[in-house]
Fold each of these.
Amino acid sequence: MEHHLILRVVTKILVGPILLYALYVQFHGDFGPGGGFQAGVIFAVAFILYGLVFSLRQLRELVPDRIVHQLVAIGLLLYAGTGIVTLFLGGNFLDYNVLSDVGYKGQHWGIITIELGVGITVFAVMLSIYYAFAGRPPQLDDKDW
Amino acid sequence: MDRIFNAEFALGHMNYWLFVILMMTGLYIVVARGNLLKKIVGLNLFQVAVFMLYISMGKVSGGTAPILIDNPNQLYSNPLPHVLILTAIVVGIATTSLGLALIVRINETYGTIEEDEVLEIDHQMHADEVAKVEKLKPAKLDAS
Amino acid sequence: MLSFVSAHSPLLAIVIPLISAPLCMLFGNRTVAFTISTLAVAASFALSIYLLWWVKDGTVLSYHIGGWAPPLGIEYRVDTANAFVLLIVSAMGLLTLPYARTSITDEIDENHHTLFYACYMLCFTGLMGVTITGDAFNVFVFLEISSLSTYVLVALGAKKDKRALSAAYDYLVLGTIGATFFVIGLGFIYMATGTLNMVDLSQRLPAISDSRTVRAGFALIVIGMGLKVAVYPLHRWLPGAYTYSPSAVSVFLASTATKVALYVIIRFMFSVYSARFGFEAVTFQYVILPLALVAMFGASFVAVYQINLKRMLAYSSVSQIGYMLLGLSLLNVEGVSGAFVHMFNHAMTKGALFMAVGAIVFRTGSAMLPNMAGLGKQMPWTSAAIVIGGLSLIGVPSSAGFVSKWVLMSAAFERDWWLIAFLIVGSSLIAVVYVWRVIEVLYLQQPNKDVVVKEAPLSLLVPTWILIITTLWFGLHADFAIGFATTAAENLIQGGFGGKEVIILGVESR
């Protein structure tokens, strides 16, 4: 792994800002364009870039398959769970108004939570798609570049 | 001449023409191409055409992005079709990745991704199966 | 607690199975996954019965998601028609699960079992959601949830037979084209009306029913859904998908997926567009009716020549769908209720038959007819189930199949379409031929010498026989299904979203 020096350096520089940008898109989604879908994909892109340059094996050590699969489920549960919570707080399914005393604040909390759920699921799904395709033999040898 | 070709009408419905062209291109690829991968590409085009139909339909002429900042009377485009299409895009991604995953599996088990070759193998398997069971001579049960 | 469940019942019927899917994945243990999914489906089934009981006299229940009142918000709307379909789906879902537990042991890799349950629950959620929702675009979303998981379920059959992969691929391409056509149709009517709520659509569409956009939308919706229903010339995906998928998946698909798609056609045709007159009625009389007749005969003839029993049943499904479409295209109360009753009866009958065939495949490893020679002695219970199911498929009196064919024939008589009535009988006679072929192989042929086949395990037999007994029960007590179906048909045929009164469930929307 001594070659591709430029790629490795650039990747190391880029991964951080990409993750940060994903978080910005995620948590700014209720004020402006953005939200879970886009943020999840951008977040996953950072990992996929890492995997492309530093080999899939290393990425899998970092984020094991099991964790990815569980994250898919957790994100979905976060979304549906918000709905269930609103049910028990005395509203309809996904009626965010009941999450807070002031209606619009409740909407805020609700949107942030479910977008977080969406973001986690989309991130995990993108990563698992990448694993599923890239993890298939025959793997590209490093010399084939 | 005006009755046969109305330029204003034709140009004013530009988004529909493009939608029709894109959609038919996609559908044609799905039907006419034998390569399973190309079929998926066609299917994608076909779906993207629909996204275009919806998104162009939500455009209000002169309207901006539907983000309210300070002017409540601001003219903005209809955001609903965009939201609907966000869902449809996700569905499209899921369909594409599932289709590609199936193609990978087909390539692994059949050794080809050409539709006619896959079909031939399918038929051959069926013929083998039939030949195998035909050997088990079905004998009628005696009336006694 | 009870009032809580009651107030949110339409929602809980969908959300409980939806949540169970990620839970199955999270725990990653197949016993736990099986338990979770069974509990979820059972809850959903109980809620469907409760809902059906509530709406049996024509009451309409409406639930507003997120507290947003329609037409802005998404609405779950339960009336007699879809409560009936909900019951079919959830009952079949509940019966298939214990069956699946045994039957997938040698059909699917062991470490894929939890994923199977997760996919199954998503498919179930999707089908229930398509049925219950009152929002046109929501139909598409749920439809794709169910379709995507169905493609996966079909492809899981690849461990046994690699043709499952190409079958799943075909299904994916055609299913996606169908769904996309459906979305284009929705786009057209959204463009013309500016709303996606079905009730709102039904109020706005009559005023502009002459618009070509609205008509094109109708055509696209019918074709798109027709692909999912497997209307005769659009059925190419069906035999492969039913033949090569794991037995449990065949059971569930054959008894629910096409029915739900057919329900969507009914909903759009009668409620959203009022199909009694005009363009929509013409479409059905001159396009769908001939296709239904071709399906009844063509697909039955093809079924006669099949050597693979699963494929034979698949073609028979195509022909049975013809009966349902025939009932719809008669455009009278009896016809529509006949379609509903046949949906119900066919779900039971085909479910039982696919279960029995699955049991044979479980023991012998093959669904080829000659392989089954003489199984009547070795697997007496399974074979008897096939015989009774087959008789119901033909429509022999005292079986469920007879009831629905009787209703359909009386609908044809009511319109004085004698020829149609005779054609219904004629097509049933072809069913006699292919059912007899199976019975002959099972009972009148010498068993293959060196093979000793044991009777199927109880976990496969019990669900099969529950279905067989219900088939017989509803053959003798036809009032149950006919009663609901007639109420549903009367509401549907009036057009729009009638019903006695609309009860808004859940918390008062702000």
Note: Residues 290-493 of chain C form one domain.
Amino acid sequence: MTDVLEPRAIGRDLLRRDGGLKVRGTAVYADETPVPEGAGPPAYCRVVTSTVARGRIVDLDTTAAEALDGVQRVLTHATAEHLASTEDRELAVLQDAEVGFRGQIVAAVLADSDEIAREAAGLVEVRYAAEATNAELRAELRADRTDLYTPEKVNAGHETDTATGNMDDALALAPVTLERTYRTPMQHNNPMEPHATSALWTGTHLTLWDSTQSVHRVRDTVVQVFGLAPEQVRVVCPYVGGGFGSKGTPHANVVTAALAARALPGRLVRFALTRQEMFALAGHRTPTIQRLQLAAERDGTLRGIAIDVVEQTSKVKEFAEQTGVPTRTMYAAPNRRTTHRLAALDVPVPSWMRAPGECPGMFGPEVALDELAVELGIDPVELRIRNEPEVDPETGRPFSSRNLVACLRAGAERFGWADRDPEPGTRRVDGWWVGTGVAASVYPTIRMTKSTATVRREGDRYVGRIGAADLGTGAYTVLPQILADALGVDEARVDVLLGDTDLPEASVAGGSSGTTTWGSALVEAAREFRDEFGDDPREGDEAAADVPPNPAEQEYVMSAFGAQFAEVRVHADTGEVRVPRLYGVFACGRIVNPRTARSQLLGGMTMGLGMALHEQSLLDPRTGAVVNHDLAEYHVPANADVADLQAHWLDEDDPYVNPMGSKGVGEIGIVGTAAAVANAAWHATGVRVRDLPITLDKVLG
Amino acid sequence: MDPELTLTVDGATHTTTCDTRTSLLDLLRRRLGITSPKKGCDHGQCGACTVLVDGRRVLSCLTLAVTRDGAEVVTAAGIDGPLPQAFQEADGFQCGYCTPGQVCSAAGVLDEHARGWPSVVTADLTDTPALDDAEIAERMSGNLCRCGAYKGIREAVRTAAGAATR
């Protein structure tokens, strides 16, 4: 048990502290960093990217570009500095003539204006020797590829494969079995702020104003890649225009900005990816192929559950999405199997996107459960309740708290599920087929092991310091609430400074771990502070602390759960799909700030709606290019796509997770949404869509 | 020779020269250091660069600066009144990057509605439509928000319009 804080500021519905700046547009993002005193006029960087998926540069002519008035440098693999470490191939920018994917940076132009840099980039001529193998084979993910391989581990250190009991026997013996294949497409994070860096090299020190979810991770990466000492590199990021994972790990653009700055000492170099470039250089979510097998008794009791996942990675660097992991924890069954196989393709490197693993990995299972419910004639809410495990099914460890059943019941009540007629394709209103569907949500409660915070008395205020990030999550508002309760003072007297490597080292804003991790460090620092200085500290008194270990993490499985209910309308003539109602009920520990937490849950559900109806990156297997690489063709939800959207939560007291009692709310909202919508679309039309997104051609088919 | 132009931005007059290829967005951000309007796509697809030019909302990334000599530009930094507070109260944003464009667009919506302009979802074209959820959603759909703050954005616009809540 941890010592849970008495909530005073925690739980209050406070306005965002950075709201005034954001609504006026005066919060400063990376590309807007003012030119520092003493620096020369800013320079602008534009890049040239490869037009072949795999091959070698045989000629690169920069003469015309360099002749243009206002061009300062053209960096290529022949002219760029040699990096100290090229171990991470994604970050080995301009180091050799090899091309590993279409859209890779092959030259960088630095000029006195953005317009000149862009014109010059267009004048760089590149000839490639494209590799003459079967192009289609290289970029297309299929489950029958002969070159699939088994990664050593999947993301977050999870086992690649797991098995309990004997799934084959379960399938042979059970009275009811179901085997289906589900697909989720390649997707892109597309934060509204393109990945951007303003960079300044003074000759000895490098400062990067970078749009990132972790200033310390960027610093550590740049230190390693360039062979610098940590004290030579500072990374600053007060505001982030969204990330959703794509800014959780530094990509090639950060290295390019640093290369550019080092080529022009004393000048602030600005480098922002274009929206189009982001589709190759800022990471993507892998497409997944999920084969689900269920074995059940006639009363719905699962005898077996299995998921076999096939997904892609890049030949440049491995990224193994943990898609099968949620199946390990969701439902009770004595026989179980999860596997992951990868195809290494000539594509850009996949990366983190909101709820990696859980988000794609809860589509197949939650639609399969719905299909089983139909086959058995059991209500899908009831089927889930009947398979609720008492302990974590794979490890046998107890849950610190698990309220999936309560979420299902509360959601059903709010949504008006009780009167539902299970027959599909029978309700037609004003030319629209109407249906409803349900799916479960899950996301692990993650606390990073390493973060440090300090607390200092300054005037009549208390100032917390931690190099964390607020990408719209509310950290600037929520962390002072936590620190105030830990100090036992009024929240209005507390500040918490974020977003700078000059502050104590913080973990990445990812894995829904921010509040839990940074909050734990701040609470520990506050305890040290009070122990040392009592209730009447003097000016400048300061204490520091790391995230303390939590032995309960070894004893308990910690996760947030939820249930989502969707109403779908499908136009009988056009097949247009709308979602007039989408309700989520979540059990995610104690809510620190209802206003910002609700926004996070609604935001996750909105992105889940996009996954259900709109989002897919169309990779041309001949060229390795994402052909719909902008926001006109890669559709994300717009205002009118979102109708009656509601997020609710249950009061959940979990004494084991951390002193705040929080479980994280940034990702669970996207988990299960697409399955709920797909299940409702089936109920509306009788057409079962097993590959996302649910477009009109599929429901008409 | 780069041509000279004069703009009024949020009440302040600026006379400057610019490359004829420069968008109004880049002129504001790069040349004048006015970074309230944001660049999300540079192709008129996301709405983050929305500003008011002579009272009308425009996408500044699709507007060549030299075509707007003498114009009066208003960015979110120049918008007072109930809108900015309503966005905060409704938590109509998270990361804040699309927000200045949303605020400018909302100001445009309020003005267009006050003039009686219909939208594609307006049922009765002979009367001024009520600014209900569907009207606001339709009129605000040119401004993407990846954080998914649409519900709060609608609430903010509704509050600012003084319309009764649903």
Note: The mean pLDDT of chain A is 97.
